Amino acid sequence: MTQSQAFRTLASTRVLPQILAAALLGLFIVYGVGFAPVSAVHNAAHDVRHGVAFPCH
Where are the domains of the chain? Predict the structure, then answer.
Protein backbone atom coordinates (compact mmCIF):
# COMPACT_ATOMS: atom_id res chain seq x y z
CA MET A 1 0.00 0.00 0.00
CA THR A 2 1.41 3.37 -0.97
CA GLN A 3 1.37 6.41 1.27
CA SER A 4 -1.40 8.10 -0.75
CA GLN A 5 -3.60 4.98 -0.53
CA ALA A 6 -3.04 4.83 3.21
CA PHE A 7 -3.98 8.51 3.52
CA ARG A 8 -7.19 8.00 1.51
CA THR A 9 -8.16 5.03 3.67
CA LEU A 10 -7.51 7.01 6.84
CA ALA A 11 -9.43 10.02 5.51
CA SER A 12 -12.44 7.89 4.51
CA THR A 13 -12.62 6.29 7.96
CA ARG A 14 -12.78 9.74 9.55
CA VAL A 15 -15.66 10.92 7.36
CA LEU A 16 -18.30 8.48 8.58
CA PRO A 17 -18.22 9.57 12.25
CA GLN A 18 -18.43 13.20 11.14
CA ILE A 19 -21.45 12.47 8.96
CA LEU A 20 -23.16 10.59 11.79
CA ALA A 21 -22.43 13.38 14.27
CA ALA A 22 -23.86 15.98 11.89
CA ALA A 23 -26.97 13.88 11.32
CA LEU A 24 -27.54 13.40 15.04
CA LEU A 25 -27.07 17.11 15.69
CA GLY A 26 -29.55 17.91 12.94
CA LEU A 27 -32.12 15.48 14.31
CA PHE A 28 -31.70 16.92 17.79
CA ILE A 29 -32.21 20.45 16.50
CA VAL A 30 -35.30 19.58 14.47
CA TYR A 31 -37.00 17.24 16.93
CA GLY A 32 -35.43 17.88 20.34
CA VAL A 33 -35.57 21.65 20.21
CA GLY A 34 -38.71 21.77 18.08
CA PHE A 35 -40.78 20.02 20.74
CA ALA A 36 -39.22 21.85 23.68
CA PRO A 37 -41.72 23.27 26.15
CA VAL A 38 -39.81 26.55 26.50
CA SER A 39 -41.68 29.02 24.34
CA ALA A 40 -38.73 31.01 23.00
CA VAL A 41 -36.78 27.89 21.98
CA HIS A 42 -39.84 26.30 20.41
CA ASN A 43 -40.76 29.43 18.47
CA ALA A 44 -37.22 29.82 17.12
CA ALA A 45 -37.21 26.21 15.93
CA HIS A 46 -40.70 26.68 14.51
CA ASP A 47 -39.60 29.65 12.43
CA VAL A 48 -36.59 27.74 11.12
CA ARG A 49 -38.77 24.77 10.16
CA HIS A 50 -41.02 27.07 8.15
CA GLY A 51 -37.95 28.67 6.56
CA VAL A 52 -36.71 25.32 5.22
CA ALA A 53 -40.20 24.10 4.24
CA PHE A 54 -40.29 21.41 6.95
CA PRO A 55 -43.90 20.47 7.73
CA CYS A 56 -44.64 21.01 11.38
CA HIS A 57 -48.43 21.38 11.61
Answer: 21-57
